[in-house]
Amino acid sequence: MTTNSVPRQIFAMGGGGFSMEPENPLLDRYILGLSKKETPRVCFVPTASGDSDRYVVRFYSAFIQLPCKPCHLSLFNPPRANLRSFVLEQDIIYVGGGNTKNLIALWKEWGLEQILREAWESGVILCGLSAGSVCWFEQAVTDSIPGSMSVLKCLGFLKGSNCPHYDGEPERRPSYHRLLLKGLISEGYAADDGVGLHFVGDTLETIVSSRPDAKAYRLERLDEKIKETTLKPTYLRNS
C-alpha cells in the first residue's frame, strides 16, 4: 500500500493551531503545505472534546479563510454509514484536543483506528494537537484521568511516547521525568505549545514552531537518570 512516492506523514503539535492561536495561523498553514495540493481536503475530528459544537465552529471559522476544503467527522452524528470511504477521501485528518482516553475508546468502538491507519499508509496526512498529537504514539503522558498525570496506551502508529504542552502546563515536565525514571513509560518526545513534530514514516524529519522561543525535546533514560535533549525548531515566520 505504501510506496516511496506516497510517504506516511504525521504532524504532532504540543499545542497551537487555530484553537490555541487563533491569530497565528503559522502551524495550520504549514499543515496545508504538507499536502502539495492547492486546495487540500481537511477533515477535523473533534472526538476528544465530545464533538463539541463550539470547537467545530472554531475550526470552520479558521479554515474557511485558508486555501482548503474543510469538513468534519463527528462520531455522535456521523456524516455517512461508510466511514472508511469518507476518511479515505480526505487529504488531511486534523484531530483536536480533549480527553485522549475517550478518543481511543470511541475510535476503537467505531473501527476508526484501523481506517486511520489505512489512510495514513495510503498517503493521507494525520495531524493534531494535544490529544490529537499523543494519540499516534505508543504511549502518552495524559491528564485524561483526573487527579494526576498518568500513562495511556495509544494507537502506536509511531514508536515511543509523547507529551504535549511541555511549557504550558507546569506538571508536564516533572510527570514525564517521573514516569520515565520509574520505567512506566517509554522514551519519546515532548513539545512546547506552538511546536510541531513532522514525522515521515517512522523518522522525525522536521521540527517547526509558531513561537520564536518554543522548543521540542527528546527524553531518554540513561544509567537511572533522565537525559532531556533540547531540539530547536525552525521558526515559521510570517511572510
Give a quick precis of the structure.
Helices cover 26% and strands 30% of the residues. It has helices spanning 26-34, 53-63, 83-88, 100-110, 112-121, 131-134, 172-181, and strands at 9-13, 41-45, 69-72, 92-95, 125-129, 137-142, 150-153, 158-163, 188-191, 195-200, 203-209, 216-222, 225-231, 234-235.
How does the helix and strand content classify structurally? Answer: alpha/beta
Count of extended strands? 14
Strand content: 25-35%
**Rg calculated over all Cα atoms:** 17 Å
Query: What is the arithmetic mean of pLDDT?
Result: 95
**Unreliable runs:** none
Percentage of residues in helical conformation: 25-40%
Please describe the biggest sheet, giving its number of strands, its sense, and whether it closes into a barrel: 8 strands, mixed
Principal-axis shape: globular
Strand order within the widest sheet?
3-2-4-5-1-10-11-14
Q: What is the chain-wise order of helices and strands?
A: EHEHEHEHHEHEEEHEEEEEE
Molecular structure report:
- The chain has about 240 residues and is an alpha/beta fold.
- About 25% of the residues lie in helices and about 30% in strands.
- The protein is built from 7 helices and 14 strands.
- The strands form 2 sheets. An 8-stranded mixed β-sheet has the order 3-2-4-5-1-10-11-14, with helices on both faces. Strands 7-6-8-9-12-13 form a 6-stranded mixed β-sheet.
- A hairpin with a 2-residue loop joins β10 and β11.
- The longest helix is centred in the first third of the chain and has 11 residues.
- The chain is globular.
- The model has no long low-confidence stretch (mean pLDDT about 95).
